[in-house]
């Protein structure tokens, strides 16, 4: 065989090998791209990163996302009430290609535009814990019935106090959120009074924080030493209220109640700092949210409306007419440390 023919054949073989290798590399690249394109991204945007309720929600979402084989991107506001931070987080999640976004809105009406933008882009949006206003701004809401939880708290306080004349302090959360409004109104309903009733001794904004709960309670006690019942938006605020009551020497004289069901709060009930709390289930909200996004990604089916994730009254001093569980049950079912 002539030498030039051998060289040409060799060059042809090398060329064929290079083309085949190129096709293989391209195929692998396309396969990797398809895998990346098919990855389901779920966004979780909570009010803060430090509140034990939202910590548990994030942990539950992370665990469920791992189990379901989807990618979770978790973001949060810098503080309770950081509406702008949550809006920016959702913007980022839309850009990242999230298939679904789970959000606990800091302001129930302040995120409507960004939620609409997400839904218009084909993103499933589910509110967790806190409903939007209007409620149908999102595809669905998975949350505690916060009005009913407030009713449970107020009804317990009134029944446990018997015929004692009430002087009630209201330690509210953050204005503009449906959770705050529903729990506040529910407590009044359960207690059997209306807004403006003379038995309401005063109110303070706590943003659900322990330090602000203590300051608010101290200010209210300074104005009215007859306070004998305290509504609190959550257990951190209740812990602050207890510290203030103790400083005033009134810790054993006031009907202090709350809502949350965190392990620290249940221990406060067990130790007698709080008379009762209403447990809610953040892990159930998060798990159901992840499942809904996974189903939407697979089938296009969307959840709708309000789904009540439940609430349970926790106390070691039950009253007639109200269903409750004791702190032993509470410690088995609580969340947080």
UniProtKB/TrEMBL annotation:
Pfam families: Peripla_BP_4. Residues 42-302 form the Periplasmic binding protein domain. InterPro entries: Peripla_BP_I, SBP_2_dom. It is found in: Cell envelope. GO terms for molecular function: carbohydrate binding. Keywords: Signal. It comes from the Bacteria. One of its GO terms (cellular component) is cell envelope. Belongs to the bacterial solute-binding protein 2 family. This is Substrate-binding domain-containing protein. The lineage of its organism: Bacteria, Pseudomonadati, Pseudomonadota, Alphaproteobacteria, Hyphomicrobiales.
